[in-house]
Amino acid sequence: MVAPSWLRLSRPTPAAPAFCDAGLPIDRRVDDLVSRMTVAKKTSQLGDQSPAIPRLGVPAYKWWSEALHGISSQGRGIHLDGPLRAATSYHRSSSPPRPSTRTSGTASARYDVDELKEEVQEAPRVKMLHCPSKAMDIENEIQVLCDQLAKKSSDSLRLLKELELHRSYGENDMPLYELKGLETLGSTLHIVVHDCASVDFWNSSIQWFRIQPEGSKKEII
Fold first, then answer.
1. Angle at 119 between CA 115 and CA 123, to 5 degrees
2. Alpha-carbon distances, residue 8 vs 12, 14, 20, 45 (angstroms)
3. In what helix (H) or strand (E) does residue 41 lie, and over which residues does it extend?
4. DSSP 8-class letter at 120
5. Which one-letter DSSP state was computed for residue 166?
6. Tell me: the pLDDT tens digits for 114-153?
7. Are 90 and 97 in contact (CB under 8 A)?
8. In this protein, which residues make up the domain named Stomatal closure-related actin-binding protein Ig (predicted)?
9. Can you point out the beta strands (E) in the chain?
10. If you ran DSSP here, which 8-state letter would residue 137 be given?
């Protein structure tokens, strides 16, 4: 016996997931999408190239180029300056996105401008290279800067050791000069003269030594 058609129970149509509803707040859509993902799937989305999740209708995505520049020529997107002009847009729906490719050149880009605006991902950008040709020089410039800093530090320490080694005292055991400054990189040493009759360091030939801590043996540097 076959039941009448009006008695047959039809299979209910599953409701679209909340993350596919463009009318909901973005935080709610994100929470809904993440709640449907396993730990392995969540981990797989942490890189700049996120693999597809067919079960949820999430396509593969290359965040490094597409989120940085909006619609990029890398992968699926818009590409109007090559030998084959093509513009591709994607529609939000509960099913996996299906690209509809149009090859009408620049007119296609104008026609889909509103649709493309919805797909463009906004991301903060920090343009560190104002001149692209400087990219190859950065490593050399850093090395030169490190060498200059090392030389300045070496000169500072050398001057400090030379002055400390040749410090002279007057009749009242008072130093003829005083050093002010820190023995650190980037510091400035100041020589404060207490006696005008002190030695003129700028016209003196100075030799300094390394003194061994175990004894009084001195080694010429």
1. 140
2. 12, 18, 31, 43
3. helix 39-44
4. P
5. T
6. 665 555 555 445 555 555 555 556 667 777 888 888 877 7
7. yes
8. 177-221
9. 49-50, 61-62, 78-79, 86-89, 100-102, 177-180, 190-193, 209-211, 218-220
10. G
Dump pLDDT digits (tens) for 172-192. 555 666 666 665 555 666 667
CA-nearest of 76, 80, 82, 117 to 100 is: 76
β-strand partners of 62: 49
Q: Which two tokens stand for residue 149?
A: 């800093």
CB-based contacts of 184: which residues, under 8 Å, 6+ apart?
A: none
Question: What does the block give as tokens for 100?
Answer: 């509809």
3-class DSSP state of 160:
helix
CA distance 65 to 145: 32
Determine the Cα–Cα distance for residues 200 and 193; give it in Å rounded to an integer. 10
Rounded to 5 degrees, φ, ψ at 79 are -150, 100
> Which residues have a Cβ under 8 Å from the Cβ of 98 and sit 6 or more positions away?
90, 91
What predicted TM-score, i.e. pTM, was given to this entire model? 0.32
**Dihedrals φ, ψ of 172, to 5°?**
-100, 25
152-175 as b/e, with b when 16 or more CB fall inside 10 Å? eeeebeebbbbbeeeeeeeeeeee
